[in-house]
TrEMBL record:
Annotated localization: Cytoplasm
HAMAP family from the UniProt entry: MurD
Source species of the chain: Pedobacter psychroterrae
All residue ranges annotated as the Mur ligase C-terminal domain in the record: 311-424
Record key words, sorted: ATP-binding, Cell cycle, Cell division, Cell shape, Cell wall biogenesis/degradation, Cytoplasm, Ligase, Nucleotide-binding, Peptidoglycan synthesis
Catalytic activity: UDP-N-acetyl-alpha-D-muramoyl-L-alanine + D-glutamate + ATP = UDP-N-acetyl-alpha-D-muramoyl-L-alanyl-D-glutamate + ADP + phosphate + H(+)
Protein name: UDP-N-acetylmuramoylalanine--D-glutamate ligase
Length: 447
């Protein structure tokens, strides 16, 4: 009997990590990418002697697998996926595969917005508290590669709905669901219920010794909770109501009541992360920390000195009294709403790109109140013009970060903020949101 064959579709961070782990456990491994493979990843595959192909999916090399590990970016309607499903070969995510080979405990964070920030803040608190902890999922290095090469006792994992869709026996010891707002609906038959069900997979397989942390102010979460069986211990957080066991917000203070003998109260002025949405993110991370019995002083210090990631409300420069902010990671409408909510000055907003079936209505009030001009940065800006033509006097089309920044420089007055917060994916003009953010930063520095 030959070695069991595992085929990995997609040769990015998660795919190459899965290949490393599969090889370590004696599988016959083949990696296939429909696009070109980045040199950095190609070098790793060559060094490990792992066979791969790029710019195609060869059915003859794929359909003989006993299991397929799929990159989260590949949609279910891709031709090769349909063929695999017809034959009935199981398809799993890198996260599902990696968890088979580790007994580490997992803290899993999902939501339409704020998950990267919350994941990084949670990781920061645990690290400061001396935990032996890894960071993976949508951020950091591949979970599978870390399981193969590191020896962490805990992992903080940022999980997207696409990852959750291909997870079956995986269990989160602590699950966090921040919010559910329309995003990626093109992958869910344009039905919010399908997307919400996908997010709720974060609690599958949990038992009464596990914990489920969620926002009780979020209508969609409350709606889907009514239809879900939850076996784990529920710990909600809220800005609107007082919570007995969980976290709530009152008189500019966050209150975290997990261990009732030792509650944590913290003024929002002490938090490194500002803006209403970040109160939610901080409460979620704070509950995790208290569940793990981390000392209040450590939680306070960590929440006070945390530095957020690049491309998420990142201050770039102040030029002639105008602030330039890079929020390129805002790839959906809700993220852009949060960005506008956290800015108190007049805004010149740079937005646009690949529209994922966006509903811009939720932005209209915020745009009317704060936005002086919209600069579109994308190949097709028709829907942005239609959405906001009655709300803002100036809407301009641009086709490069440099051009967008030049136009913004002329439109912004002293005291204003130029905000790149696209509400769209970046693939029409850029490699990814990081590339878009970096080009914006370069263009600002050239002013």
């Amino acid at each position: 009997m030959g070695k069991e064959r595992i085929v990995i579709l997609g040769a990015g961070e998660s795919g190459v990590g899965a290949a490393i782990l599969a090889q370590k456990h004696g599988f016959d491994v083949f990696v296939s990418d429909f696009g070109g493979i980045d040199d950095h990843y190609k070098k790793q595959l060559i060094e490990l002697n792992i066979t791969f192909e790029e710019d195609r999916h060869s059915a003859s090399d794929i359909l003989n697998a006993s299991e397929i590990i799929k990159s989260p970016g590949i949609p279910n309607n891709a031709p090769i996926i349909k063929e695999i499903k017809e034959i009935g070969i199981p398809i799993i995510s890198e996260i599902e595969f990696a968890k088979r080979y580790t007994s580490a405990k997992t803290i899993c964070i999902t939501g339409s917005n704020g998950k990267t920030t919350t994941t990084l803040l949670t990781y920061h608190i645990l690290k400061n508290a001396g935990f032996n902890v890894g960071l993976a999922g949508n951020v950091g290095n591949s979970f599978a590669a870390q399981v193969a090469n590191a020896d962490f006792e805990w992992y903080v994992l940022e999980l997207s709905s696409f990852m959750l869709d291909d997870m079956y026996s995986f269990k989160a010891d602590i699950a966090v669901l921040l919010n559910i707002t329309p995003d990626h609906l093109d992958r869910y038959d344009y039905k919010l219920d399908n997307y919400a069900a996908s997010k709720m997979r974060i609690i599958q397989n949990q038992t009464n010794s596990d914990v489920f942390i969620y926002c009780s102010d979020d209508e969609e979460i409350i709606k889907v909770l009514k239809k879900s069986q939850v076996h784990s211990k529920k710990m909600p957080f809220s800005i609107e109501t007082k919570i007995e066991e969980g976290a709530y917000f009152l008189n500019d203070n966050i209150h975290i009541n997990i261990n009732l003998n030792d509650p944590l109260t913290m003024s929002i002025t002490e938090l490194a992360l500002q803006g209403k949405h970040n109160i939610y993110n901080s409460m979620a991370s704070g509950i995790v920390a208290k569940v793990l019995d981390i000392r209040n002083t450590t939680i306070r210090e960590s929440m006070g000195d945390f530095k957020n990631i690049a491309h998420r409300l990142e201050h770039v420069a102040k030029i002639s009294g105008v602030n330039y902010i890079n929020d390129s990671k805002a790839t959906n409408v809700n993220s852009t709403w949060y960005a506008l909510e956290s800015v108190s000055t007049g805004v010149v907003l740079i937005m646009g790109g690949v529209d994922k079936g966006n509903d811009y209505n939720m932005l209209k009030d915020m745009v009317r109140q704060k936005v002086k001009a919209i600069i579109c940065l994308g190949k097709d800006n028709k829907r942005i013009h239609e959405a906001f033509e009655d709300d803002v006097d100036i809407i301009v089309n641009t086709f490069s970060a440099h051009e967008a920044v030049q136009v913004a420089y002329h439109l912004a007055k002293k005291g204003d903020t130029v905000l790149l917060s696209p509400a769209c994916a970046s693939f029409d003009l850029f490699k990814n949101y990081e590339d878009r953010g970096n080009q914006f930063k370069i263009a600002v520095k050239e002013l």
